Amino acid sequence: MRLSTRGRYAVMALTEMARRGVEGAGAPMSLAEVAQSQMLSVAYLEQLFGRLRRAGLVRSARGPGGGYRLARPASEITVAEVVDAVEDTIAGPPEATEAPGVPQEQRDLWRELGEQVRLFLSAISLQDVVDGRTFGRAVPVPPAPTGPEEG
């Protein structure tokens, strides 16, 4: 599974914006404010926000008092969208799924894990994170049947 600091920092930054209600026509938030509140580098955030803007998740406002706003309400932006915008992939590291000599069953395992992570993050909005509605969301999957039952 590939979920680097880029994805984590992007989620942290947009969650902070959601917490402060920086969306719609409200006042934008500067990257300096985001960086200070999350103890991140402004230069690093500039790179992330370029990707987030191209993905349509944030809008920029220029000039004095400029910065960024969420492009949609926080309840409509999923964590998976944020991660997808800044990560190259979430499906798994290439060495686990594409390297020669890796048995197909192991490739399948890592691809399926990546898909489970994607499904989980797709069901959680930034507003869910702000409101603390993430704990207990993982649902166990019942074991697959192993064959005809003996009776």
UniProtKB/TrEMBL annotation:
UniProt entry tagged with the keyword DNA-binding: yes
DNA-binding in keyword set: yes
Pfam families registered for this protein in UniProt: Rrf2 (PF02082)
InterPro entries documented for this protein: TR_Rrf2-type_CS (IPR030489), Tscrpt_reg_Rrf2 (IPR000944), WH-like_DNA-bd_sf (IPR036388), WH_DNA-bd_sf (IPR036390)
Keyword terms, alphabetized: DNA-binding
Domain of life: Bacteria
Protein name: Rrf2 family transcriptional regulator
UniProt organism field: Roseomonas populi
